[in-house]
Amino acid sequence: MEDPDHVRDCTRRHFYEPMNKVPRYRYWTVSEKHGKVGDDEEDGESGIGLLGADQILAIIQHLPIQAVISFGMTCKRYKAIAETDALWLNICKREWGSRAVEAWPSAGRQKAGWKGLYRQMVVLGAAAWQRVQQGPVSPTPRASHTMNVVNGRITIFGGGCDGGRHLDDTWVAPVPEPICAPVQWQLVCSGLPSGRFQQSCTAVGDDLLLFGGINDKGTRLSDTYINSGGMVAGDGERPRSPWRLLDVSTAPPPRGAHAGCYAGDRKVVIFGGIASDATRLGDTWILDLAATPLCWQEVVTPTSPQPRAGHTLTWVGGKRMVLFGGRGANFEVMNDVWMLDLEEEYPSWVELQSSMLQPGHDHPGPRSGHSATLIFGGRVLIFGGEDSRRVRKGDVWVLDPSMALQAGSDKSSYQGQGGFSRSRSSGNSSSYRYSRRLWKRLKQSGRPPSKRSFHGACAVDSGKHVLIFGGMVDGEVNPATGAAGLGFDSELHILQLVP
């Protein structure tokens, strides 16, 4: 192994620049000692060819994937370096995080190597369903509940059930080992928080933060609860609820069917929902759990998504969130995508319009009541929902925010890590094999669950699997009308994303 200090002290810096928009790169060097800039092909003494393999690897592992592939096409020596398994291991860690990569199935690594596995995951064209068995006790059928994973435990709270009744129970189960083993549920408590459905519940570190919702009297709520996990010792043998009502000096107007998610730095953001007068809301609020006193603050931006309910809001890393779909003020169902950026001094909403999609690529139809789950690689998995006629869906889509960021803003900070799109004029089949899309529909194998909406979903196993529980499904068909009734489900399914 060559001395890393020698790499840092090397008097040559290497740069690349695109040539005529074709994804091949010409490498340049700068000699600090002589202050000279030259083309490698003309200056053999200061060319990249003088560097050792370890030094080259230390450089190219930081390049975009397209540049790495183009570099490997220049000669046999560089091709061998660009095919190195250690290089692609570092690229996988860069793209998806060390935790996800270290938990990767060893069988997949041995069969395809890290480069082959990277290609599989970028392409990600299919996923397999499996129904998961549940223990002797389990949550009753429900929809519009919340489902989260915190500290290795799955938590389900509340929701609505048959007859329009609300639920007030909290269920907890450890993430099963192995991942498809039966899930052993435990009823932790009931009664606190009060019964509700269409609330938001957000994981913040090891805590859960719940806001709002609607009870079975139609009352919109605006209370905020925190669940720090575990059981709290109470009087006698009966434990108290792990939920605790937070004292906040200011709260958003009461609502349900809004969306909420983590916003970085122990902050939670919510958007939209249905107000007490049944109108759709279009406001954005943030709660900073590290602040004293606790106070919800409204975020005012020059532009924002139109008012809606039944949409999703998903944290995608840093201080950025993605909003998708929902039902608008005139009951229209939408499929627009917005990015909320809190990275800059002034927060902003940016719409990622359909014209920004790559030509010829499909995208999901309008829907509400779907789930949007952050999976490995910082991508968002969309499942189910219902259209404007309340016809339920069972399709699976993946949104790649790195492509969305590139397409949706002119800001240089909106460059997704490792993301790129293939130039149609390149004719570069190697680059095409690694191309990423803003939207991709996944083929489903195994035993897919029935079509549903307003179900719960959460990612487990470093985002390589997604659990689905409950939701609204088609009930028995009315013989007189031929229309399907409404049913509430209590099945648990798992979607395997990694082969």
Automatic annotation (TrEMBL):
Region ranges (Disordered): 407-432
Pfam families named in the record: Kelch_KLHDC2_KLHL20_DRC7
Keywords of the record: Kelch repeat
Ranges of biased composition (kind: Low complexity): 412-432
UniProt KW Repeat keyword: no
Name of the protein: F-box domain-containing protein
